[in-house]
Amino acid sequence: MNKTETFGEFSHSERLARLRLIRTDGIGPILFRNLIERYGSGTAALDALPSLLAKRKRGGSVATKDACERELEAAHRLGARTIFHGEALYPYRLAATGDAPPLLHTLGSHDLISPPASLGIVGARNASINGQKLTRMIAGAMADAAVTVISGLARGIDTAAHAASLEGGTVACVAGGLDVIYPRENTELFHKIAERGLVVSEMPPGTQPQARHFPRRNRIISGLSDGVLVVEAAERSGSLITARFALEQGRDVFAIPGSPLDARARGCNKLIKDGASLVQDAEDIFAELTPIKPDTPVIRIRTTTPTAETLLLPTMAHLKPVATSSTSSATPLYMWMR
C-alpha cells in the first residue's frame, strides 16, 4: 500500500480509491474492511469491485471518480481534514471496532481525536433540569481531569455535556455533513466546538441528517470513547443504542438512576439492572473508567443473517468474527452496515 512517509497518509490515488469503494451502494464498513484485507489496498479492491458487483442479482455501479473528488474538495473548502482508516491520525479506539468508518471528515483540534482518556455522554433530548445540571457537573469534572467528553450535539443532555466540557476538550459526532448543523439551535455551540474542540462526521459534506444516520453516528460516539455514560433515556431511546454499541465494542457503560415514575429514567434503570455501573457523581466514573490501549485487537462483528460478505464474497468464509456481548435478541444493529 502506498503511504506518504511525511504525514502517515495514503497517496491521493489510494485515498480516492477507498472513498469510491465506501461510497458505492451496498458497501458498508464491514465489507469495506474485508475487501481491503482480501485485496491489500483500496486500489486493488476497486479494480475487483465491478466483477463482484456483477455477481449480485441487483447489480450496482461503482461510485464515480468525479463525485468522490468533489467530496474531498468540499471537505477541504470547509477547512476540514479527511482521515482514512489505516492512516496515522485515525483514532485508534475507533479503529479497534469491527465496523469502524473507512473515513472521517474532521473539523477542529486533532489533538482530541485520540486523547489519553475519553467518556461518551448521551441522554434524553427532552432532559429534565436536574438531568442537565448533573450532566454539566460530571462533564465539567471530566474536562478538569483531562478526560475528553464525546457526544452527539443533540438537544438536552448532549448540549449540556458539550457546553460544560468545551474548555477542557469536547468532540461532537454529527449525523449529517460537517456543513449541515443540526439542530439549528446549536449553531453557536457547533462553531465553538469547531474552534476549541473537534467535530467529526463520516458523511459527505452537504448530507442532511436522516433517521437512519443516527445509529451510525452513535457507534462513532461509543467507538471514540473509553466508556459511555447514559443520563436519562426512555426504554426505546437512541441513547440505549449507543449503550448497546458500547457493550459490543467492549466499553464501560455507566448510567444514572432515576424515579420509576419518570419515563426518562426507565432506560437507565434497565441498564443498571442489566449490569451497567450506577453513577451518582464523577467520582463513580473515575473509579471504574478504563482507558483503551492503542494496541487493542479489532473486535469483529457477528451477525445472525447473511451479510454482504457472504452474499458477495463467498470465498471469505475463513474470516471468523469474534463473538461480542449478547445484549439483545433483537435483529442486530449492524444489518445496515453490510
What does this structure look like?
With 338 residues, the chain is of the alpha/beta class. It contains 13 helices and eleven strands. The strands form two sheets. The chain has a nine-stranded mixed sheet, sandwiched between helices. It has a two-stranded antiparallel ribbon with strand order 1-2. β10 (252-255), α11 and β11 (277-278) form a beta-alpha-beta unit. α2 (29-39) crosses α3 (42-54) and α9 packs across α10. The radius of gyration is 20 Å and the shape is globular. It starts with a strand and ends in a 26-residue tail after the last helix.
Question: What's the short story on this structure?
Answer:
The chain is an alpha/beta fold and 338 residues long.
Task: Chart the SSEs and their pairings.
Elements: E1 3-4, E2 9-10, H1 12-22, H2 29-39, H3 42-54, H4 65-77, E3 81-84, H5 92-95, E4 103-108, E5 118-123, H6 129-144, E6 148-151, H7 157-165, E7 170-173, H8 187-196, E8 198-201, H9 213-223, E9 227-231, H10 238-248, E10 252-255, H11 263-273, E11 277-278, H12 282-286, H13 308-312
Parallel strand pairs: 5-6, 5-9, 6-7, 7-8, 9-10, 10-11
Antiparallel strand pairs: 1-2, 3-4, 4-8
Helix pairs in contact: 1-3, 2-3, 6-7, 9-10
Oligomer: single chain
Number of helices: 13
Number of strands: 11
- Strand fraction equals 5-15%
Order of helices and strands: EEHHHHEHEEHEHEHEHEHEHEHH
- Radius of gyration from CA coordinates: 20 Å
The helix/strand class is: alpha/beta
Distance between the termini: 24 Å
Q: Which segments are poorly predicted (pLDDT under 50) over 5 or more consecutive residues? A: 1-6, 302-338
Please state the overall shape, judged from the principal axes of the Cα atoms.
globular
Main sheet makeup: 9 strands, mixed
Mean pLDDT: 87
Estimated helix fraction: 25-40%
Strand order of the largest sheet: 3-4-8-7-6-5-9-10-11
